[in-house]
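Troubleshooting log. The previous structure file for this entry was overwritten by mistake, so regenerating from the original sequence record. Sequence copied from the archived sheet and checked twice against the printout by T.R.
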Amino acid sequence: MTKTEVLTWKIGGVAGAGQQVAGLIFAKACSRGGLFTFDSSEYPSRIRGGLVTYRLSISNKPVTAIYRSTQLLIALTQEAFDYCQPDVVSGGVILYDSDTFKPGRKGFDGIKAYPLPLKKLGDEAGIPPLAANMLAIGATVALLKYDLAIVRQTIAEVFRDKGSEVVVMNQKAVQAGFDYARKNLEPGKFPFTLSPVKNRPADKILVTASDMVALGAISAGCKFLASYPMTPASPILHDLINWAEKSGMFVIQPEDEISAIHMAIGAAYAGVRSMTATSGGGFALMTEGLALAAMTETPLVIVEGQRPGPATGLPTWTAQGDLAYLTKAGHGEFIRVILAPGDAAEAYELTGQAFNLAEKYQIPVFILLDKYILEGHQSIAVPANNFKIERGEILTEKDLAGIKGYKRYLNTKTGISPRAIPGCRGGIHLANSDEHDEFGYSIEGFSAKVVAEQAEKRFRKLSRLLAELPKPKLFGPKKARLTLLGWGSTKGPVLEAMKDLPQVNYLHITAPWPMSESTMKKALQGQRRIVAIENNFTGQFAEILRGQTGIKVTDRISKYNGAQFYPDEIVAQVKRLITSKG
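Regenerated output below.
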């Protein structure tokens, strides 16, 4: 590479033309060469038509976010050219499909624009139109002087199941694009290069947070998923369906989200670890079921993939707009936990923890993510499969034999009532959605003492639960001029931005609810200036922090246009805050 630590490549064209597949192949080829990548795709909520882009940031060091500054752009349509061109840096190159359109001028403030006649090249090479994007990948490899052999091998791996004819066709397309670029596009003058790493990490994989939630669920012993597809949570369903035979998990797509959560509750009541996955709009249909899980004290894990709202909002874009909603969703008062992974690695770790917390405390636990990391591929180390499965107080038949008159909702000191799995001798009980006594029998308000006892019992779990939640993690110096405070997917862009912000540290929150006042005050003790950074309009975590602890943030950095934060805009806003207030 040149002096820049991160190189960003982007391709844009009409929806359905396959640039996401081509881009992912290039990402895999970079990963096979030992490089680190992070990708993101922008696309409309329709099958055909409209603009689709795929952006890939590449480095020989770990990269945790997408960069806006683009060194190489492949524009397959005029719309893609116009939309993406402002992000191309001076010295960068735009390759445009000259068989489709011609830009108005060749020079763009130090940017070179070269024609790439995809139809002509395809016709000459005998390649069908569906492989045109692979021609663009070949041209990319030539310009960046990357190893073509690695790309060819990656194509063979990706298309292996489609047969040798498909593999050969795509390899031929890459070669044709490569040869054209070397002859016509002056790769020797292009200032940016990619080189495979000599000592390649052997334990690196390219995955999304969706993949890692699915793998985390399998490793944690989940045996049932009921999920109705809804962007951006659908890939979790797709992964677990594909892996169901090997994992032994029962996976079902029911008729709607209401059925999904009640199936998951039923499976959990029957004794297996279960999960459902949806987006904000889908979860809105699940809230009555959420309250059912709380009242019956049935363990339940819910994955909620955020996208901009309200209503249908922007179905294929990203946001952090559902945190406040999840803290209060469902009628009545009950404990729930919200875990918010910041990247693919945390998605795996926190999924395992979610199942343990759900069963130990017999509560619903959310895994709250968003489109940016659910669909963005990232290079990470292979996680260790060392989950300790903690199922909590589950009674065996031997335990039940020593109990006279088993009480499912026994009023214990910890608030956790020992749970009997249906079918166990001596464990017959009611799991009642009405308020109930210790046996599970419905009670009315006339039994005020019992009502209060059961409510207090359920909330008695809280102090023990708070001690077990993941603690905030500080990145950067212990003392800093300014502390960025964020949760979930802001982590990656902030960590990249901090490379240019030596006087700044970052406190990353993975358990935004419930909140321990003492834990947060300790984590922020001595920090001079606290700036909340969130992908929402109202600063939802900052408001929760103030309400639960009295801690007020000094400033806020907010973004709510459907896009994730870019490192460069965080750098600019932080420097502006430092300059303006000292």
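The chain has three domains: 7-202, 206-381, 471-581. Archived copy saved in two places this time.
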